[in-house]
Structure prediction request, 155 residues.
Amino acid sequence: MLFALAAIGTILAGLGHTWTLAAQRERETELLFIGQQFSQALLSYRNATPAGQPDAPARLEELLEDKRFPYPVRHLRKLYVDPFSEDHSWALEIMDGRIAGVHSHARKHPVRETVPDGVVIVAGDSGHPQYADWRFRPPAKQKTVPQQSQPSFPR
Prediction:
């Protein structure tokens, strides 16, 4: 009887660990999706910027309703909840008083060893990656170089 209870306890502990790991993977996938949404919204905001205006929002709410135009432009459907903290408090990367990117406050270690393109991993102090090290920001601005036009000669 004691052996059966020990075996059942071991099996339940293994199932608990498996369920916890599956839930963490699911939240991780959700974090990557939400981060991609923020990156795309910040890029959309930057690309829609009229001349002479700042090309990044000062608050996340400006992504929901961009009032720089005669009609409101929506770059983001809603302010997403951080799947690890379960609230709307995202850590913001601020550059020149404007939002350059977002990341989670979560200090847990990720299950994934690789992340999709577009996610910038900043080395943390602990030496082990954490969800807070995953930065979601739009791609850097590309400097455009005017191309020289080729003279056309009649044939």
Observations:
- The mean pLDDT is 85.
